[in-house]
Amino acid sequence: MLHVPAAPWLHYVGDLTAWLAAFLGARWVYRHRRASVERLSRQSVPSYFVSLAAGAALGAWLLGSLNTLRDSRPVLSHSIAGALAGAIVAVEVWKWLRGVRESTGGPFVIPLTIGIVVGRWGCLFAGLDDQTYGIPTDLPWGVDLGDGISRHPVQIYESLAMAGFLVVYWRALAKHRPWAERHGFHAFVLAYAAQRFAWEFLKPYPPLVGPFNVFHLVMIGLSAYALIWIARGRHRPAVAGA
Fold first, then answer.
1. Nearest residue to 224 via CA among 108, 93, 85, 114
2. What do you get for the CA distance between the two ends of the chain, in Å?
3. Separation of alpha carbons 120 and 126, rounded Å
4. Is-contact 113 120, C-beta < 8 A?
5. CA-based Rg of the chain, rounded to a whole angstrom?
6. What would the pLDDT profile of 111-133 be if each residue is shown by its tens digit?
7. How far apart are the C-alpha atoms of 162 and 158, rounded to whole Å?
8. The sheet that has 143-144: what strands, in order across it?
9. Is the pTM of this model over 0.90?
10. Cα–Cα distance measured from residue 6 to residue 226, given in angstroms and rounded to the nearest whole number
11. Residue 209, strand partner residues
12. CB 80 within 8 A of CB 113
């Protein structure tokens, strides 16, 4: 069992570090993926980003709190999974109203992925108060977050899983793979949803439907969204950087 020096305030350090890392990722995209950024700027207006931010904030707190308010220690909380789902819903509504039929998420893939990879470590070091910890385990890499119980380091699992996706996606971009050029954002959503769905079984969240908790259901919805977009894309002409 590994002992982790945890403190609630370390969550904020993790958040700030994640935002900085995501910003650096966004700078790389701006410099090296200029075509996708310029297309996004042509497709969108300020209301696009307002909708994105509002949807992310609402989804983060709504779904995060819907989950933790059902816990034995009910509290209001926010979630990156909820933020992602809320932002997608808000942006898709905006696109439908504006008649935009192409993907606009490509430029966000690298910043979002880097933010998750880094930010999950802040969740780990925040300890038990963060309520993102795993269930008990006898595995040698279990972590003690201050209560003497060896737990699955689910935050590290997620960070490593998304780091793996980032490596694959980055290499695919360098080689101009069609899936990365056309459906990078949908691949990101699908990868995130699949790995998050798996790790949810290792968290002590209360079930909502059968063995599934709130985020299991959200991940099923995100997977369906990504797969539908990918399937639709097969019948459309290629658009680089989507």
1. 85
2. 44
3. 10
4. no
5. 18
6. 999 999 999 999 999 999 888 89
7. 6
8. 2-3, 143-144, 150-151
9. yes
10. 36
11. 212
12. no
